[in-house]
Design goal:
By secondary structure, this protein is α/β, with parallel strands linked by helices. The longest helix is centred in the C-terminal third of the chain and has 27 residues.
């Protein structure tokens, strides 16, 4: 069919034929980047073409290192080698009272609180202790945590009315429980606010974090700065303080100098003598129970001011800790200085010193043994202990007065005069002389004590006269 008779499309069939449109001028291309597409502009208004953002090219580390040069990387490698040499230190067995007290308390499974100024080495000591004992160290900064981080976060289950709402523990507690053993280090305890301290009560005493109970292999050690040197510090609450053994951590000049030279003291657990375990328990119980029976006021004594309440003070709980520490120190045969640090850190300085004095008296010879064989009597060198022994001998004669026992007591006093200070014999000799019965002959040995007793009596009378003269003028 000829082209002139082809039917038009439905949309253009009724329109008159239009003359051919003039050819428009060539559009000017708009180019934003070399990779942008050219957009032609045909008729006004001119439409702004879309701007294509050029792709961001990431330079790989290798290219960056290459651009900075190999010398830059090699300098960092040399710096890393120098740091490794500085960290390479050694340890040695060395007498360190603080470290020995800390390891003994950790072995006794008691929470320990180290008090010391900032930068004194508390954290470093804990890290070294954990490494030596092969215990994983978990550090928790108490002051940057919420109370729920220690008491647990409530997790609502399918049916809270039936199942309850368990308290989910934080991740560090879950890791410790999964490991089964470790050293939990609660740092900056004195900067924790009262609400956080309250949440720590169950963790420190019962080892519970929310619904999770930490295994027996986890030990707890905390550190605190005195309030005067702590940032926004708080006094420790009395309930929390009474759950710790408080150790004052100070620096030892010789230890610091030798440590900076590359050798630090080595921490090690005390060697407990298996054969002495029953004896150690009996000894500790006798010491603590004997003191508290004689001094009932020491059983519980809450300090009157806030500062002292944040330290060690006597309570039934802290006396139980002192008993345990005494048993461990006895079984390990530790020094008296270490035992003094531990018991004073549990019940306070005053009660702790009284317990130590009681321990000294428990080692004294039995008065009945001395009366049975005065010639072989072994008397303590320390004056206060010797005085206690002589008083005990005289008291034994007073309870059971017999001529032979009275004579033996004079023989003990003569031996004390020959081997020690004569002034310690004055009071026991005067008391023993007052116990004489009419039918008892005076032993010959008493003549050797007559001068001492007479001199002591004259001194006492002179002192009484001086006091009487000074009295009205006061």
């Amino acid at each position: 069919m000829p082209a002139s008779v082809l039917p038009a499309s439905p949309s253009t069939a009724l329109l008159p034929a239009s003359p051919p449109a003039p050819t428009p001028p060539a559009p000017t291309p708009l180019t934003s980047t070399p990779s942008a597409t050219t957009v032609p502009v045909t008729t006004p208004p001119v439409t702004t073409p879309p701007v294509t953002t050029p792709p961001v090219t990431t330079v790989p580390p290798s290219a960056a290192a290459a651009s900075s040069g190999p010398a830059h990387a090699s300098r960092l490698d040399v710096a890393a080698d120098l740091l490794a040499l500085l960290r390479d230190t050694d340890t040695e067995p060395r007498a360190d009272t603080q470290l020995e007290a800390l390891t003994l308390a950790v072995a006794a499974d008691l929470p320990v609180l180290l008090w010391g100024e900032p930068g004194i080495g508390k954290t470093a000591a804990l890290e070294q202790l954990a490494a030596t004992l092969d215990l994983p160290l978990t550090t928790v900064i108490a002051s940057v945590h919420e109370p729920s981080d220690f008491s647990g976060l409530p997790v609502v289950g399918d049916d809270p009315a039936v199942q309850g709402v368990p308290m989910a523990p934080p991740d560090w507690a879950v890791r410790l429980a999964g490991t089964g053993r470790g050293l939990l280090f609660l740092d900056e305890l004195s900067t924790a606010p009262p609400a956080v301290q309250a949440a720590l009560l169950r963790l420190v005493l019962e080892r519970r974090v929310g619904a999770l109970r930490l295994p027996p292999g986890v030990r707890i050690v905390a550190a605190a700065n005195p309030r005067s040197s702590a940032a926004d510090g708080w006094e420790l609450s009395a309930p929390l303080a009474n759950r710790f053994v408080h150790l004052q951590w100070v620096h030892d000049h010789d230890v610091v100098v030798r440590g900076l030279g590359g050798t630090w003291p080595r921490a090690s657990l005390p060697r407990l003598d298996p054969a002495r375990l029953p004896e150690a328990v009996t000894f500790a119980r006798r010491a603590v129970c004997g003191l508290l029976a004689a001094r009932p006021a020491l059983v519980h004594r809450l300090p009157g001011n806030e500062v002292r309440r944040g330290g060690a003070w006597p309570s039934p709980r802290s006396w139980e800790m002192a008993l345990r520490l005494t048993a461990f120190a006895t079984a390990a045969n530790t020094s008296r200085e270490v035992l003094s640090m531990l018991v004073r850190g549990a019940v306070g300085d005053g009660p702790g010193l009284e317990l130590l004095a009681g321990l000294d008296r428990m080692d004294l010879p039995d008065p009945e043994t001395l009366l049975a064989d005065p010639a072989a009597a072994g008397l303590p060198e320390r004056g206060d202990l010797r005085q206690a022994v002589l008083d005990g001998v005289v008291e034994a004669v007073r309870k059971r007065p017999e001529k032979a026992r009275w004579d033996a007591a004079w023989a003990v006093l003569v031996r004390a005069l020959e081997t020690g200070a004569p002034d310690l014999v004055v009071v026991p000799a005067s008391t023993l002389a007052a116990l004489r019965r009419e039918d008892w002959d005076v032993p010959a040995s008493i003549e050797r004590l007559a001068g001492v007793v007479s001199l002591g009596g004259r001194a006492d009378r002179a002192a009484a006269r001086a006091a009487a003269v000074a009295g009205p003028g006061r």
